[in-house]
Amino acid sequence: MNQTIFQWAVIGAGPAGIAAIGKLLDQGITADHILWLDPQFKVGDLGLYWQNVHSNTTVHLFNKFLLESPSFQYSKGAEDFKLSHLPQQHTCQLSLMVAPLQWITDHLRNTVEAQEAMIHHITLTHNTWILDSDSKSYSAQNVILAIGAEPDVLHYPMLDPIPFTIAIDKQRLHDVIDVKKTYAVFGSSHSAMIIIQHLVDLNVNKIINFYRSPCRYAINMGDWTLFDNTGLKGQTATWTRQHIDGTLPQNLVRYTASETNIKNYLPVCDKAIYAVGFKRRTSLTISGFEYNHYDPHVGILGPGLFGFGIAYPEIKPDQMGCLESQVGLWKFMLYLNKVLPIWLKYPCTFSKST
Fold it and tell me: β-pairing, 219-220 with 225-226?
């Protein structure tokens, strides 16, 4: 076992993990007391799977995220990224955000102790968290889980599914589809509409969209946004208003996801695509702690153990009282600014320095 006991460990190097490392450094935690663990350090799923997806976040908020942490040093040494030259209120291809995030990742990897490792199990022993990978164990007094989430699925065994990570990327989808076949798409979210648009553009024989609720659009109310986390935005909202709530393309039909409709229409489909949300990764187990529950207001899972990012989002009401999970890079940063001072006072064990 690695005998070094770090003050803080961050598991995950997606946007949430990047934010956590930057903000720990901003809080004065010395770099050699911070352990950063990730199998690849390629900006998480955002870098691995979503680069060719169009964002529902504005360039302005992306830039605010990049400039929020002084420890990122983005304004001092960053390359001249294309993101900096785009209209601030426009949305953009996610690859344009991945590039600066990768630059920050590389900078932070050279600052803190970074190890390429997939952590499968953690346990609390003698006021210290033990983090186990396949080949090595690490020790830390406090742990931030920024482990991300994976696409949720439904189970209709009569149909072969196309993985969400392929369907959301138009080029990858193009490489696997047969335009003569019929495709079932489940969902009415932002990602579901992107996938349906891909299939329409690729001119497949037929698309059957099964949905539980009508399309929802984010509405700018001036100083706040209604349905900010669940509503359609940007070019996806524009396409959906025209082609879903307007005139359906000839190769698209839509049915509510009732048992009757699924029984009647699913059998004519050849493949299924599930765009029904995300679920927290289950590849990590935590001994002695209830993994499925966390405080959605302060992110505390246990003493010295904290959840952050899409796996453990903040939940709060908007001005109309609608409860929503706060998912998005800038929202993660705002949440971290609020809760990190609390986390610093909630360690596994109290010492003279706490």
Answer: antiparallel
Q: Determine the residue type at 231.
A: G
Laid out side by side, the sheet with 252-256 consists of 160-161, 271-274, 182-186, 206-211, 252-256
C-beta of residue 353 within 8 angstroms of C-beta of residue 344: no
The answer, as to whether pTM is greater than 0.85, is yes
Residues 89-101: pLDDT tens digits?
888 999 999 999 9
Q: How far apart are the C-alpha atoms of 202 and 49, rounded to whole Å?
A: 20
Q: How far apart are CA 75 and CA 284, in angstroms?
A: 35
Task: Show the DSSP H helices in the chain as ranges.
Answer: 15-26, 44-48, 59-68, 74-77, 95-109, 164-167, 170-176, 190-201, 234-243, 259-265, 329-343
Strand pairing class (5-11; 252-256): unpaired
Average pLDDT estimate for 67-86 = 88
Q: Measured between alpha carbons, how far is 313 from 304 in angstroms, rounded to an integer?
A: 18
Find how far residue 86's CA is from the centre of its chain.
Answer: 23
